[in-house]
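Task card 7
Instruction: Convert sequence to structure tokens.
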Amino acid sequence: MAERGRETLRHGPMKPFGLTNSHQLDMKAYAVVQLRQDNKLGTLFNMVGFQTKLKHADQVRIFRTIPGLEKAEFARLGGVHRNTFLNSPKLLDATLRLHAALRLRFAGQITGCEGYVESAAIGLLAGRFAAAERLGEAVSLPPPTTAHGALLGHITGGHIDTIDAGPRSFQPMNVNFGLFPPLTRLPTRSPDGERLRGPAKTMAKRRALTQRALTDLDCWISGEAFPEAAE
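Output:
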């Protein structure tokens, strides 16, 4: 990530947005390090998102320059982890079955999703699809306007095959608003009639996408028909 530019990390693992310092409310952090408690005693913390190719000595040297970590004891240093996954758009069908052996289904991170919630969601769908097939029932795919449907669509064929620069391989992804089908009509004004601009417009769009998703998900769960372009 760091190779993509000097500002990359502070828009990823070191993203400071939305965080405040209770001791200095008027000061905004340039970047932050997230610490996750890893044991019950509270003596071991994980530095979130700090996988690195650096040698251990260099990691210690650099980490000690971070305010608050000058005298930290490092129980274990980071390393880049390998994420093994299938080329799912080519190998799996819409219900996560292997084209070459339809009796096999895949679920979780190996299908090409990122994140605990996403992996569990794809596992849930695989279980529903397998149960429906076993019971002789019609397999119902979640609407593409929902988080489940959008993520499933990315995994089984909704990714971008090519870009202007040439072919791009399938890559795992967390669920995000970019995977959702666009709204037919974008919100332009707030409930009080004020014209939306900047962050307010973005938030209004996300609320509209979320409301559409919840409505379509309820229809899917109840077995009712849902309009693909529902708002």
